[in-house]
Please model this.
Amino acid sequence: MSTRTLVRGGLVVTAAEETHADVLVEDGRIAALAAHGSAAAAAWTADRTIDATGRYVIPGGVDAHTHMEFPFGGTFASDDFESGTRAAAWGGTTTIVDFAVQAVGHTLREGLDAWHAKADGRCAVDYAFHMILSDVHDSSLKEMDLLVEEGVTSFKLFMAYPGVFYSDDGRVLRAMQRSALNGGLVMMHAENGPAIDVLVEQALARGDTDPRHHGETRHVLLEAEATHRAVQLARVAGAPLYVVHVSAREALAELVAARDQGLPVFGETCPQYLFLSADDLAEPDFEGAKYVCSTPLRPREHQAALWRGLRTDDLQVVSTDHCPFCFRGQKELGRGDFSRIPNGLPGVENRMDLLHQAVVDGHISRRRWIEIACAAPARMFGLYPKKGTVAPGSDADLVVYDPSATQTLSARTHHMNVDYSAYEGRTVTGRVETVLSRGEFVIDRRTYTGRAGHGVYTPRATCQYLG
Ligand code: URP
Ligand code: ZN
Ligand code: ZN
Model:
């Protein structure tokens, strides 16, 4: 029995165009679009009709950087796949790409199997995986090829966190060389970890133990230097490069320089770098711990460069790097020693709304909002046009978005499993009203109607920005 849903009267916004169109959904896919009032649209019948008058109809968000249950600093990110994907749905995100972790001494397969076990049967929306490479050697390099073939087509390496996830330049180069052969995309955490560790040790020895020293010791130039090095290593390897969570304007300048030379170098930033700053990290009474993440929040002056980078397409993607730790019991592990504060911020529920606020504020256009939050991440990570657009044949991952509603972001009302909001008390214009995932109602006029296990694992093609 086929199920048909009709979304009538809305403004359909994709990265490419804005059209006053009705959308017909059939069996989990978008079947057709037709102009409001057209003969074609008038002839459609459906089991359910959504009135989207005065609303946008947009593709479900694609958040290409999340860390559900991520192990860090002796604890685990507080959202699991069930709570985290439910919160994603509330925020209009219908696909996440999470990071499976290869632990040192283990194979990629073991890491990937472990992440499948965490996610299987628990997700409210669809999900895919990147792989974190923590132990680059001959056999893990060979395993990369197998993962690419089965749809895990991107690999995160860390120039930071010595002793945990860190890879030295030789290992980075070898992984890049392999990705140049197998079509994978290296995602780089670009910070000079060994140099940062020296600054951290010196700061702690001076008694500078507050959260704000997290930002100062993770120096802007050590992000820029690592970004430069990553670009050069990728050139030597003949590989494309995607730099995650870019926060410093000096690091962005390295990406701009590379792209100006025509190199296949891509960049991502996150809402926290666009809307928060080192001022938040400097909040007294250890409150700054809520804002400890890496790369760190930067002084406010960096934000203008990031917005510009998003407008000029020197940055292609905005992901959340959602990696929540509760203030009580988790962030508190670093009282008296900022280096022990688990790194990461909550945000999977807030991204679409914050970026819509950027439209309202005039930083980006409405179509660019959809591009950086839906279409570009889908293309970057081989999910387009199944995900990231509203077009016949695409999955019916749709958000009916009310652009005029206002809401105040707060831990009291959010759905992420974390005891604070990084955006507490911030009022934004725009709100998710209804969410379909493959045609099923996950949020129905602000009521959660989804279920754990609806979301399915989605293997990916390779990066679609490359020839
Ligand atoms: O602070 C962060 N970003 N935590 C998650 C791990 C990472 O580096 O992305
Ligand atoms: Zn990182
Ligand atoms: Zn991350």
Summary: The chain has two domains: 4-58+387-408+429-443, 60-380.
